[in-house]
Amino acid sequence: xxxxxGHFTVLLAFTLSIxxxxxxxxxxxxxxxxxxxxxDSTAMAQFLLIAFSFAALTYSFVVSDFSLALVAANSHSAxxxxxxxxxxxxxxxxxxxxxxxxxxxxxxxVALFGRNLPSALKARVLAVxxxxxxxxxxxxxxxxxxxxxxAVPPADGNDLNPLLQDPGLAxxxxxxxxxxxxxxxxxxxxxxxxxxxxxxxxxxxWVRPWTLLAWVTLTIGIxxxxxxxxxxxxxxxxxxWDPVENASFMPWLIAAALLHSAIVVEKRDAxxxxxVLLAILxxxxxxxxxxxxxxxxxTSVHAFANDPERGVFILAILTVxxxxxxxLYAARAGQLRTTAVFGxxxxxxxxVLNNLLLVVxxxxxxxxTIWPLVAELTTGRKLSVGAPFFDAAFTPFxxxxxxxxxxxxxLPWKRAQVGKSMKNLRGALALSxxxxxxxxxxxxxxxxxxxxxxxxAAWLVLGAIMDLLVRARYRDNPLGTTxxxxxxxxxxxxxxxVAHAGLGLTVFGIAAITAWEQEDIRVVALNERFAVGAYxxxxxxxxxxxxxxxxxxxxxxxxxxxxxxxxxxxxxKRFYPVQQMPTTEAAIDIGLTRDLYVVLGEQQxxxxxxxxxxxKPFSNWIWIGSLVMAxxxxxxxxxxxxxxxxxxxxxxxxVPQPAE
Amino acid sequence: xxxxLLILTLLLATPLYAVEPDEILDDPVLxxxxxxxxxxxxxxxxxxxxxxxxxxxxxxxxxLLVRERLVAGDSNSEAVDFIVDRYGEYVLLKPRLSRENAVxxxxxPVLLVLGAIGAFLYLxxxxxxxxxxxxSLSREEAERLEQLLGD
Lengths: 660, 151
Prior knowledge:
A: four-stranded antiparallel β-sheet, globular, disordered C terminus, B: elongated
């Protein structure tokens, strides 16, 4: 019953979205206030309707209503409650409904809190949002209906893929979608601005929080996915350059570029048309990502040909959205004029360089991802592009970016001198190099990666600290005053420094785990001790245990260091009978300086067990750094300027420049 | 993500994991070289996974083959050539730098250079023009620049 009403509300929302994509646009053009205001009510109504249908679907999963085809295919009555709920988006149809729910949620936020937006801009933004939701609601209704019933319900369901029954992955899609869909707001603002032919500081001030929010949630989503792969897939890989990962990484990179270029629009009234283009590109990559994941085209051209309906539908949405927006851009971008003047060396030029590197890096990822497809379609050659290519082709751009970041971040606006700004960074640079040399001399084996990575990471972190100190004018003030000034710096300054430092932590984690990881694979008899690096391990026993919907063999391993016990590890091998699927649960002793990572393998003929042991130094810094980056974004998001943004729309009001 | 999971599911359908203890060579230097080569070779039936971390049967065969060639005295590139001769370019996770793949390898550097030129021209114009109400770029110039930057 609920499912039928949920189905009905989806159809209603679809109808409303069509109305909302037409009426407010006309209203904005003709300056009819009533027609423009309609968008507010329809946006709220769309949200309430979709929220109801999402609740209805969730209810069906919670009560295990196997008369719904989707529930029967993806759930099971014995599944833990958490995974019954998260199973709602653990499948294609449900995840599309979640995508749309988030889309209309953002639309409702604009309707509710966008009181300060000029009514024409707001009407146009909501109309563009409605076009996107109309397209995706049509996709849901015509190709991926989650509310289909089956005539003869089965006694029990097929269960959710066991790999998905995991807290890390349960919340990975919602965060990713918050990010993907958040970029649709930047897109809508960009298209609305093109229709109006006007981009100013106030516009940038409205776009930046949305982009920032999207970037923060994408950061968290990608980090969650990477962390999940690390502990769940059984050998501690954390990034595979898989097309599906790249699909989420490309919007992240472009969003990072966008939120930097929007600063230039906001503060300096320059880079306008470039920023609008980035906003269009960012959401385009979200759509391309959705296409890659949903159509399967990258995995195999044949998978796409076998079931083309969904892929073709998304491809059509993609073509219309990207093609339409870019056409509009070509027609209108010329009207966006820049008046600002700044020197060849300035904060502005630093941000241009940041954009250049991020966009080129994105292009490399994009071409690497689609190259197998291009090669097969054009020349019939079958080839692979995997991690070794991306490591070699992508990393150099990131190294350049990181190397210039602290300097670019500290350059004054308008006109700067490298020498003058470097004076503030000399200490940080010297200390970073010294740290690198120290590590190089301490480590055995001559890999340059770790010292180099550590020096870069230290450069980022120390550079961020110096950035704050310079902002607080530490040279001219006694310590007490400096501290007070530090405390009173705008949140966005803190956010910037924290995010940059977070990047440094991640760089360090990546360099350390890549350079210093130790691995050991062997057959171990019970109670035999073996050494890996500075640690010793002992397999005590292996017992059988049963979970709620699986059976398991659980090993008990003790780890020693200097003959002192440091950890008890319980690696598992599970078997999920409903899906007939074995999984491996690695045991990880988590630490700031190292993870001990133990995987239980097969029992051998002589009664011993295959045990894989890894010592992964500083691996958690990768995700801690990502969270710190996200935290920086959140700090920036709470900056006072955004909370009062546009209280009175400062049309072309000069933005006060911070004294440097 | 779902897609990836589906594939991973298939991969994990056998509980064996990657390099098995009985495959490891006695000579640690040779073994290290074998591991390095393995990371660059694709498990042919897997999705985007190298033979070093894959547990598929073919990956094991390839791992053993690599070790066999190394023990027989092949250099790293000879061993890789030997496998590419038999399994095709598809087995390489990093495509060869050939004429057909030139675009793939050149796209990054070429875009960087073009973009840097475009950015430099833009910035120079910004720094030279006096502050005018109409902005300093003509419409064609602005479009041309966006083209360069957007390429």
